[in-house]
C-alpha cells in the first residue's frame, strides 16, 4: 500500500497492525485504511501544504471549580507556531474533529482544542438527554448565557496556557500569539464567531486574542439572527456547510439558516464552501470510519508534570458518544471521501493563504479550487 506523508498520523497508529496483517482480508482496520487512501488520492491534485510529523496529548485541567478538557496537536518543531484554537460541537470531547486537527497540525499549525465538560459527552448523562429531550437541551446550551460561559472558560484556558508557557512548558511556549485562528464546529462555531466579533455590537467577547482568520464548520445561526451581527467580524472567514448538514438536536431548523452567516460576512479574503453531500457527521471530522479497538494504539500522555499544580498530569479517559446515555447523533455510512478531502484541502489552503500569506495557497483558492471541487461543492 502506498501512503502519502500528509496523513502519517492518521495512518501511523495502524502501522503495527498493518505489518502483521498485510494481505489478510480480516484486518479489522482495513475500511479505515482504504478510506484514508481514497482521501489521499483526491488530495494529490489539490493544494499541497507543508508536511510535518506531529505529536499531541489530551488532558483535563481544573480551572477554579470547573473541569475543562484540553487537547493539543502540533508539529514536532523548534520554531514558533501559528495557533488554531479549535472548539468542538455540542456533546463532543476535546479530542473531536481529529480529521481536521491532524491535517492542520501536519500543515504546520499548533492546534489547541478546548471543551468545557458541561458541553461535552457528559451532557448525555443529564436528565434531559436521558429523557430524549434534545431540543430543550440544545436551547439551553446555545443560549446567550451559555455562550458567555464558554467565552469565559476559553479565556481562563488561554490565561493558563500563557502561564504554563512562562513556567517552562516548551510546547506551549512555541505558540505565536500574533498568528491565531479561531475555528469551531456547530456549538464551537457559535463560540468561535463570537470571539471574532459576531454579535458584539460595541462590545467585546472578553477573549484576549485577535484572530487572523476564522474557520466555521456547520456554522450556528440563531433563528432571530440578523446579517449585521456577522458583518461585524473583521477577520477573513471560511464557512463550510451543506444541504445535508442537518442538526441532530433539532434546534437549527434547516441548513439554509446556517448559510446566513457566510452570506453576511463582509471581511476581505473570506470564502464560503457549500458542499454537495456532506452530512453533519462528516463536517464534524470525528470517527468518520471508526477503527475497532484492536486496530488502535494508545495515545502518548501529556509531557512533563506542568499540567496540574503540584503534580503530574495524566491523559484522561473520556466518554465517547452516548456512553451511559442517549445521543441524537447516530451511526452513518462511510462518508463520501471527496467531501472529506474538500474540507481538508480548502481549509488548509485558506489557513496558509490568510495566516502564512502563502501566494500558492491564495492562487489555488482563487483559480484552481473550483475546478478541483467539481461536483463535490461550490466555493465563493
Describe the structure in brief:
By secondary structure, this protein is of the alpha/beta class. The protein has helices at residues 8-12, 15-21, 30-43, 98-106, 127-130, 134-141, 144-166, 170-173, 187-195, 227-231, 255-264, 280-284, 337-354, 359-373, and strands at residues 54-63, 66-75, 81-87, 110-116, 175-185, 213-217, 237-241, 271-275, 377-379.
Tally of separate domains: 1
| Proper CATH architecture | 3-Layer(aba) Sandwich
Element-by-element helix/strand order: HHHEEEHEHHHHEHEHEHEHHHE
Please give the alpha-carbon distance between the first and last residues. 36 Å
Structure description:
- This protein has 380 residues and is an alpha/beta fold.
- It has a single domain (5-297, 329-379), classed as Rossmann fold, CATH 3.40.50.
- The chain is built from 14 helices and 9 strands.
- A 9-stranded mixed β-sheet has the order 1-2-4-3-5-6-7-8-9, sandwiched between helices.
- Strand 5, helix 9 (187-195) and strand 6 form a beta-alpha-beta unit.
- Helix 3 (30-43) packs across helix 13 (337-354).
- It is globular, with a radius of gyration of 20 Å.
- The two termini are 36 Å apart.
Give the topology:
Elements: H1 8-12, H2 15-21, H3 30-43, E1 54-63, E2 66-75, E3 81-87, H4 98-106, E4 110-116, H5 127-130, H6 134-141, H7 144-166, H8 170-173, E5 175-185, H9 187-195, E6 213-217, H10 227-231, E7 237-241, H11 255-264, E8 271-275, H12 280-284, H13 337-354, H14 359-373, E9 377-379
Parallel strand pairs: 3-4, 3-5, 5-6, 6-7, 7-8
Antiparallel strand pairs: 1-2, 2-4, 8-9
